[in-house]
Amino acid sequence: MQTESQASNEPSHVVPVTDKKSHSKNAIKSSRFRVQSIARHNDVNAQIDEDHDKTLQERSENRQQNIRQRQQQNLERIFRLCYDNCSDETAGEPDPDWIHHFITIAQDIYSPSMQKLWSRILRQEIITPGSISLKAMITFQQMTQRDAQLFRRACLLACHFGQDSSKKLLTGLKYRTGFLLKQPSIDRLNLGHYQLPYSHLLELMGLGLILNTELESGKLQNGTPLPFHYQGNEYQIQPAQNGLSLLYYRFSPVGQEIAQLLGNHRNEEYKIHLTELLNKHFIVTSDAFTHHPVI
């Protein structure tokens, strides 16, 4: 690694290289190398690599041409991915304005993993026109690959209950023990244990994917079963005592639209802890079993 005095003796536009091995090592660690590499890839390296013979206009035209070619390549990949995932299901006719907005946004999606998600957006809209709003597309456009990964983690933990099919993140159960005047107790699910700490929830709230207020259901009555769904698993939960309520965060309408593109996938460890929590306070019934809590 160079010392500060050694670096100061080098020309400002040259990345010092002694041999291939040391060059490879510096390429991993040097920020100057990374800037130079990005500049070359985006055709804005003229003042870094000064051994060129093109005018400013020629360089600009060359960069614009490369951008258009990459955008064309992006769209072709997304449409091919969509085509490969389609079959003989009945299709509708997407709105021409929607297709125009889609192409305008999707042409600048470079990440392969994000291109896969955009191909799902297109497929969903072709199969069910009107199911993906322009607002959802714009929100999705603003999401980085990391944002998408965070949201996927939230979707892995999402459930819904009652007659409301909107996705929710259950955070705990509130119940009373002993005297009526005593403060209610809360049995919490630690979402941070499943790589979704509160700081990540705040990021998803900032993107408009999750509503920013923890909500509480109405009091659940003993003897009245409540449908409860977790990632394809269906249960009936009947409170073992009166006064139980569910605490949760609700996905926003835009979050609902984007979540449906990801399908049903569950976190097995979370499922175990979720069912343990429900079994403590409810008579839990499914097609496979009935569990009675020990009170």
UniProtKB/TrEMBL annotation:
Q: Name one Pfam family in it.
A: DUF2806
Coiled-coil regions, chain positions:
none
Q: What is this protein called?
A: TIGR03899 family protein
Q: Where is the composition biased (Polar residues)?
A: 1-11
- Residue ranges of region Disordered? 1-70
Q: Which organism is it from?
A: Photobacterium arenosum
Compositional bias (Basic and acidic residues): 49-62
Alphabetized NCBIfam families for the sequence: TIGR03899 family protein
